[in-house]
Amino acid sequence: MDHFLTLQEFMTFTKGITYILMVAALLSVVGFWRFLSGNDED
Amino acid sequence: MSENVTTAGKTIWTPFNIIAGGIVVIGLILTGLRFTQGLGAVTNLSDDNPWGLWIGFDLLVGVALAAGGYVTSAACYIFGMKRFHSAVRPAILTGFLGYATVVLALHYDVGRPWRLPYPFIMQRGTTSLLFEVAACVALYLTVLFIEFSPAVSEWLGLKRARNIATKLTLVLTIFGVILSTLHQSSLGALFLIAPSKLHPLWYSGYLPIYFFISSIIAGLSMVIFEGTLSHKFFHDKMDATHLAERDGVVLGFGKAASLVLAGYFIIKVIGISVDNNWHYLGTGFGLWFLVEIIGFVALPSFLYAVGVRDRNMTLIKATAAWTVLGVIVNRLNVCLVAFNYHLPSSERYLPHWMEIGTTIFLVTVLVIVFRFIVTKTPIFYEHPEYKDVH
To answer: Which of A23, A36, A40 should we substitute to test contact with B (largest number of B Cβ atoms within 10 Å)?
Structure first.
């Protein structure tokens, strides 16, 4: 477990991970939507 | 037309009737025991575990699985997706009976059930989440009753009542969505007050959002699941429109469920990240948490997507049943499994068989009433006097 001395350190670390995850998630959702709608009738 | 189906030659001693009848008899005995001997005689509830199976399953799961009503009517009347119209009445009926069963089940759990209307006359203040849940559930049950009333009015020939209720559809749908957003999320918010009691993997400041989003998932999946069962057992009650729109409902709801499940998976992971709870994933509870979010969230999201892509109705229907189970698992995890996780095994809660019996009794009553209503009223077909009048 990471050792955080201040709330600032905790927030910086967790926010950083969260931002990376969110960018990955948003990109994944685009790919997932294309997969989901792949065979839709237009 | 379904009303021409004859019952001549049919016996009431069908396997379902016999089993259901036995369950009802046992349930009535348990009900008598509960209300004459008290909670201690039929439950394993205690000061440490005041909320057990009746709250965890009957209330939390019941309210979540009854969410199909607001989801379907919102899709049809607010988002204008008229191709789902045939699914509205069955979904509203499921929702109405679901919420009615929830309120009935609540009577078993509260100490003084005759005081159930008290939240409206004396309560702990409007900042109480339980007050808000009580108010919203009571109001939403009323909304569902009015939304369901046209079917009964058509059956009884009450044209004026039917027309008045039908004119209110859009208003009721909007009100229903508002109320559902409120109480679905508030049921999750009830656990915010106990951060030390709920395991960190399930506890989050986002609990209200988790419960609301998973209620949408539950509603979408229950419409498919209930439709699957209805098609199996009430196929002869369904008209051509209902049968023709069926695949469209399954595909459309399956696609929506896939997306919402994907979004739910993402926000669950974000919740872990925001609280930096990654290290809990390596524990026993962590393994169970991974089973829940991978096996019952990520997997059904993917299976729904594959089913929609390949137009595989069987896969979508099976995934819907699995997802319903996943919502049940989630609600029971929050209320029972991950709650009081730090207590020793000797003090953990396990439901008494009488609690399980009562729950099975209530679900059986719901199914019996559902069967009665769909065989008598125009749920799966349009009444000939009101065809295309919506």
So the answer is: A36
Residue B2 confidence (pLDDT) above 60: no
Of A17, A21, A32, the CB nearest to B305: A32
Instruction: Dump pLDDT digits (tens) for A1-42.
Output: 458 899 999 999 999 999 999 999 999 999 999 999 988 765
Contact B274 A18 (CB under 8 A): yes
Residues of chain A with Cβ-Cβ distance to B258 below 8 Å are: 36
Q: Could you report the per-residue pLDDT of B257-311, keeping only the tens digit for each?
A: 999 999 999 999 999 999 999 999 999 999 999 999 999 999 999 999 999 999 9
Q: Report yes or no on whether pTM surpasses 0.90.
A: yes
How far apart are the CA of B324 and the nearest CA of chain A, in angstroms? 21
Confidence band for B209, pLDDT divided at 50, 70 and 90:
very high
Residue to substitute from B276, B303, B308, B316, interface A, most A β-carbons within 10 A? B276
Residues in A closer than 8 angstroms to B283, CB to CB, are none
Q: Considering only CB atoms, which chain B residues are within 8 Å of A18?
A: 270, 273-274
Torsion, Cα B356 B361 B364 B365, to 10 degrees, reads -150
Domains of chain B (ranges; CATH) run 28-379 (1.20.1630.10)
Asked if pLDDT for residue B3 goes beyond 50, the answer is: no
Compare all CA atoms of chain B with the CA of A13 and give the residue at the minimum distance. B276
ipTM value for the complex: 0.93
Residue B305 forms contact with A (CB below 8 Å): yes
Question: Which of the four pLDDT bands, split at 50, 70 and 90, describes residue B231?
Answer: very high
Q: Do B309 and A38 touch (CB under 8 A)?
A: yes
